[in-house]
Amino acid sequence: MSKSCQLDPAPTWLVKDVCGLLSPFISLLFSKSPASDCYLAEFKKAVVRPLLKKHGLDAIQMKNYRPMSNLSFLLKLPERIVQSRLRTFWDGNCLMLTTQSAYRQYHSIETVVMMVYNDMLMAADGGQVSALCLLDLSAAFDNADVGHASVNKYVASVCAMCKLQRVLNAAARVVSDTRKYDRGLSHLLHDELHWLDVPQRVQYKLCAAVHRCLQHKAPQYMTDCCINTSVAVRRRAFSVAGPAAWKSLPDYLRDRSRSFDSFRRDLKTSFPVLLAYTAH
Question: Taking residues 271-280, what's their average pLDDT?
């Protein structure tokens, strides 16, 4: 949090520089406020500015705007404190829905898209028909289109792996300033740029997701998928492909006590060796 508002008594950078001096007083203030059920009148003010709902809308029409409140940085601190306490209480008493992903640790658009796509693939492999309904809230939330883009991107990555590999090869040529038919593309990708091929990248992401699940750093709906699935089911869904990719790793990589950064680093560097081993 580094932005400042004209309501702030001092710039945010200055407060950060003397945080050791001010933090005891700020902590006392925000601890007393919830306990006494009293909120200072100064913290109920905001600078409201109009913001276009979407890029390209007519700026003359007032209906195309929505209010944007610019708050003091001191006002944002108690919000985070209350949110943290509520989240701890809800999680500790199992009051949150397992499918609730917004504003929760280890939850993201990526995890939601992965599970939606997983459920659709599992239904399709089981001979069932699925329908996906998406609600467009882009008029109210600026980041709503990100979810739609992520869905399209994820589906495309599964259906057009060869095309993505060609895009990756072209990107390597651009970065290295080499021509299309120059030799040494594999050396350039793997040894110089340290990039994984698209199929390896898919396996890398699957193993990383399973590792997060095993360390309880993933949503519960993803952890529940890391179970044994019938071999009759196709290996497209995460609930099947994820455990299968994890079981293919050597024992030293499947050590659950390893930190995520250590696991991710060693997994990436081990892929050439793993591929050579599986080839034999």
Answer: 52
